[in-house]
Each structure stands twice: as C-alpha cells, then as structure tokens.
Amino acid sequence: MAAALDLPRSVLLALWLTAPAERDRAVAAVQADDEPHTVDTDGEPAPLRDWLTWLGAPVDEVAAVLPVPGEPVAAPAAVSHDAVLAGECVLLRAGSRTVAAVPHVEEFGSQYEPGHLVTWRAVTVPDWRTAVWAQVGTLEDAERDLRRGLLTATEALVSLGVERWRPDAADAISDVRDGALPERRLPRGVDAQRLRVLSSAARLRGIVALAAQDDGGAVNTWQADQRSTALREVDRVARRAMAAAATYLTRP
Fold this sequence. Notes:
Elements: H1 9-17, H2 23-31, E1 38-41, E2 44-47, H3 48-55, E3 61-65, H4 77-86, E4 89-94, E5 97-109, E6 114-124, H5 129-136, H6 139-159, H7 170-177, H8 192-211, H9 221-245
Parallel strand pairs: 1-6
Antiparallel strand pairs: 1-2, 3-4, 4-5, 5-6
C-alpha cells in the first residue's frame, strides 16, 4: 500500500490560510494526530481556531519557508533563529498586519505511540515579501528546478551505488515513490500545478530521508561525502519547490 506523503505543518497552515473560511477543517488538517495546537501571541496562548478567527482568514498573502542551518533565511530577523531550529515558518499579511508564526514541537510518548504538543509562536514582523520573493521565486521556476534536480540527483545517487540500499528499505522506498498527498488535509480548490509540485517535492524529500538513513553503496569517506552532498542539494530543491507551492504572493 502506497504511503501518505507528509507535508510540514507550516506548509499545511499556509495552504489553509488562503482558503475560504472553513476553520474546523483547517484546524483538523493542520493538527492531524497532534494534540490541539496553541498559538502564543505576546505571551497570550489561544487555540489555533481562535487565532484563525482573529486573523479573519483567508489572509491577503502568505508564504511558507523551510530553512536549514547554513542557508540564507527568508524569515525576518525576529524569528529567523527559531525558524531554522524548527525547520519551518509561516509568514502572512492580513490587511496591515504582517505576522510570522513558528511551530515549536514537543514530543512525548514512545516510538510506537508518539505524541506531539505544538505551540505556534506568532509575532508581528516587518514586511517580509521582498525577501521571500527573492529567495523562493515563482512556482514555475521551482517546478523546473525540481525536475532538473530530480534528474541530477538520480544520476548522482545511482553512480554512488544507492541502488544497493538495504533490502528491508526497498518496500519503504517504493511506498514513498508511489505515495500521494492525503486529500483530507488539503483545502478545496488548490490548483493542479501546486498539487503537482507539492506531491513531487514531498515524494522527493521522503526518498532523501530514507536514503540518508545509511551510507548505501558508498565504500569510502569520499563517496559518502559526495552522496551526502547530493542528498542535501536534492532536499534544498525540494524544500524550495514545496515553499513556492505554499506561497501566495503578489510580486512586490
């Protein structure tokens, strides 16, 4: 059975923030199996649904950024450190308000029954649109880079012997390759191009995560380093494409 592809919480929230106001569906989609999400604004926590009501979704413009250490961060300085630690951030404009929200996740339970407590820390920030546009670019650019990155990565990983992954990983790799986004977690009306990019990027990130679990066919340090470099580049392209597909922005 093919796996359900995963999307970061910030990507899901960004998609729902520009959807028609279906707050119950939005909250259920973003929270999924987490404990109920809380949004902390200036030290005043509130349920995610109440925060969406306060914003008056749909908002005017929104972006998701998925930063990692060592890369430029499009998020404003006030949240850039937290965004890198979390690996994600939502930026939005609702009227004259420009806000950044970063999810802080606490894990509990066991590997067999994991649980997550999620608190979004939301702060007012300066206009973020120019920085995001410069880094994320257009959806068309991202989709083109995604196709090119997939070809480059396939050649690089195959040349390093990734086809000799652990036999017990073969089923998991196949599941991710054939996986699909869960429709119940996506708002109605997301256009076909965005869905296509989100699916391809999620699939690629899933395969990268599996490939990174061991050193595959690498037989020496140089090969292992080359393989890690290839995986990082593929993940960068996939993150950029995923962010572009979750960003609704009027060019500044």
